[in-house]
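The data layer described in this paper is built around a simple, fixed record for each protein. Such a record has a labelled line for the sequence and another for the backbone structure tokens. For reference, a complete record is included directly beneath this paragraph.
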Amino acid sequence: MNLDKWKSQIVRGTLEYCILLMLSRKTCYGYEVLRELGMYPMVASTESTVYPLLRRLQRDGFLQSVWQDSAEGLPPRKYYSLTPAGEEYVKCMSKEWDSLVEAVSCLRGE
């Protein structure tokens, strides 16, 4: 039995939602997004997955970004936040997610 392929499909379908949820709570820079995702093994991702996704979400109008100097004297960081369109998008995604969870729970007999 190979669950890795199935898990990969689940993650691919939910990673965008997870990132938008994170950014709906606070503004984050890219590495911060990676670190927080890394706290949850099921959605932990690599730079080569997360950064292109952040760029696409920005290009699609769901995210905005701003460069800020680091307090520790490190190079500036690009901070991402939701646009009004992104806020609406994550609300719609949440409704769909809730419907999915309810359907799966019913199918499981819960």
